[in-house]
Amino acid sequence: MPRPRLTEEERQAMRNRILDAADAVALESGPRAVSSRSIAEKMGTSHMVLYTYFENLEQVYEAMQTRRVEQLGQTLGQLTERARSEGADKVLYEALLSLLENTKVHPRMADMPIIIAAHHKREGSPDHQRVPHKKGRHSFIKGIIQKDLVSWGKEVIVIGQEQGVFCQGDATDMTETVVAIVYGVILSWRVRFVHDEKIDELYGRAVDMVMSYLVDGDHFDIGASRRPLLMVDDGEKE
């Protein structure tokens, strides 16, 4: 006797269960550990169940990222309202500092964009054969960054310009500069170019530098009393 067809609500509930399991695996062991078998093990079911609800592992990654972006969107909306009422400079400064703290809490999830971009290049992967070439991970990540992080940053910078706390200029260019600087430091830390004992200091300098840039334009000033934002030997003295 054939199984009864699932309702759309039932299918969505199962998709959510799969995504919950995938998120749990990623948080515990990192995004690289997310696979059909690790998800199935977390759920206590067959790994083939995944392919009933997702075409391939690519779609699971994208659904995970989309869900996180939706949650991020709610947070960014609240921060935008605070920027209007409390000051864009204050809110953006706090948001940039919290970015590193959130990465420390879930460091492996911070690697998700890198893993998504690299996953489709893995030769010999069964999932690699199922990935539609017309919708690569690079395009997906680019859309996420432009729609959420850059768009929100641009909105807050425009608010700051209207409030007179940020200099006038192309808000998109300014936002992309800020994102490149702060994420450059975080990614350098994640790939072990920046050591754990130095990340707080270096990231703090990066945040100070971008705030100075937003206020003063092309002039970057991280404070005369601070060392340049460069890697130094552990034995080097102040």
Q: Note the overall shape.
A: elongated
Mean pLDDT: 77
Strand content: under 5%
**Rg estimate, integer Å:** 21 Å
Runs with pLDDT <50, length 5+?
A: 116-146, 222-238
Classify the secondary structure makeup into a structural class: mainly alpha
Helix content: 55-70%
Q: What's the main sheet like?
A: none
Distance between the termini: 77 Å
Number of strands: 0
* N-to-C series of helices and strands: HHHHHHHHHH
> How many individual helices?
10
Concise description?
With 238 residues, the protein is an all-alpha fold.
Describe the structure.
- This protein has 238 residues and is mostly helical.
- It has helices spanning 8-29, 36-43, 50-53, 57-86, 88-105, 112-119, 126-130, 137-163, 171-190, 196-216.
- Helix 5 (88-105) packs antiparallel against helix 10.
- The chain is elongated and about 65 Å long.
- The termini are far apart.
Describe the protein's topology.
Elements: H1 8-29, H2 36-43, H3 50-53, H4 57-86, H5 88-105, H6 112-119, H7 126-130, H8 137-163, H9 171-190, H10 196-216
Helix pairs in contact: 1-2, 4-5, 4-8, 5-10, 8-9, 9-10
